[in-house]
């Protein structure tokens, strides 16, 4: 838990919830608050499984998974390639496009190669400008006027020089938890005001979550289909949570898939599972028991 990215605080909370669950399940366990010395720390301990409560950069992106592969410590969640693919919104969209899974129209900018001033907007406004490899809505802007575009690129570039520019999908936001072959109830996300940014994600009361989502039967079926296709196309393992937007014509688009979704006691994934009678501990037990390596 913890880690070196922007999502450290959430990760510590997921980690604390995992520890409580491990205690209830009577698994002997030890917490590691991840820092730059993780490779050394891991090389000195003996364990049967690493239960990953990390999120975002240096946790959800294949780097920790790589260290664990090297040390032959089975870990929970997706492997190296799927984690890295999913962390990068550009490679995710390339894979989705290849498999015919709808994702909003997009272009990319690489500010290691050009300046923000040189980037020409090829999409119709409004657009969303976001760092390719970040999470928790950090560095993201919604651009409604042409003159805001370059500032939005510079904002995104403070997180990552690799930037996704995406058509803004006006409509309903949902997130779809997948656990093995099971699609858990779809969650509708309704921010009380504005959009689903960091504050509205993590401040209680700022956003309303409705389970099951109030969407049409047709949209529900498509969201489930696209989420499972995304899970498989990216090559995810054990569990993940896909973020989608449904436009005014009732057409869903996949934004991204989170390979180590937030897992505090009040997080969306366990909340959705609880709706169908699946407990927090049942999920943790299955993650631990089925933890594995890419190279078995
Ligand atoms: N194309 C889009 N259209 C409308 N809203 C978007 C779009 N892309 C992102 N958003 C908003 O920004 C939030 C974060 O975007 P997302 O792509 O899920 O990245 P992350 O969660 O990794 O920061 C979404 O939950 C959504 O509210
Ligand atoms: Mg998201």
Description of the molecule:
- The protein is of the alpha+beta class and 296 residues long.
- The protein has three domains: 8-77 and 285-289, Rossmann fold (3-Layer(aba) Sandwich), CATH 3.40.50.20; 84-102 and 170-279, 2-Layer Sandwich (D-amino Acid Aminotransferase, Chain A, domain 1); 106-167, Dna Ligase, domain 1.
- Helix content is 34%, strand content 19%.
- Strand 9 and strand 10 form a beta hairpin.
- Helix 1 (8-24) crosses helix 10 (280-289).
- The protein is globular.
- The protein starts with 7 loop residues before the first helix and ends in a 7-residue tail after the last helix.
- The relative contact order is 0.16.
- Adenosine-5'-diphosphate (ADP) is lined by residues 104, 128, 130, 135-137, 140, 166-169, 173, 195-196, 243, 245, 255-256.
């Amino acid at each position: 838990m913890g880690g070196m990215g922007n999502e450290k605080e959430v990760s510590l909370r997921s980690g604390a919830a995992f520890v409580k669950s491990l205690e209830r399940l009577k698994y002997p366990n030890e917490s590691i608050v991840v820092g730059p010395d993780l490779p050394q720390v891991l090389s000195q301990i003996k364990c049967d499984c690493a239960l990953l409560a990390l999120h975002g950069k240096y946790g959800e992106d294949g780097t920790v998974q790589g260290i664990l592969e090297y040390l032959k410590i089975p870990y929970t969640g997706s492997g190296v390639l799927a984690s890295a693919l999913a962390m990068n919104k550009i490679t995710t969209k390339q894979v989705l496009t290849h498999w015919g899974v709808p994702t909003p129209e997009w272009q990319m900018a690489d500010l290691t190669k050009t300046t923000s001033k040189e980037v020409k907007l090829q999409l119709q406004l409004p657009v969303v400008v976001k760092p390719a490899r970040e999470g928790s809505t950090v560095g993201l802007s919604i651009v409604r006027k042409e003159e805001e575009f370059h500032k939005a690129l510079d904002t995104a570039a403070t997180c990552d020089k690799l930037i996704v520019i995406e058509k803004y999908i006006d409509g309903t936001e949902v997130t779809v938890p997948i656990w093995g072959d099971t699609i858990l109830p779809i969650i509708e996300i309704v921010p009380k005001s504005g959009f689903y940014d960091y504050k509205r994600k993590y401040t209680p009361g700022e956003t309303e979550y409705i389970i099951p989502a109030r969407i049409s039967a047709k949209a529900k079926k498509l969201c489930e289909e696209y989420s499972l296709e995304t899970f498989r196309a990216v090559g995810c393992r054990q569990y993940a949570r896909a973020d989608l937007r449904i436009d005014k014509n009732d057409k869903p688009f996949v934004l991204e898939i989170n390979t180590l979704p937030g897992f505090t006691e009040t997080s969306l994934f366990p909340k959705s599972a609880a709706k169908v009678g699946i407990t927090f501990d049942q999920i943790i037990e299955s993650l631990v028991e089925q933890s594995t390596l890419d190279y078995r």
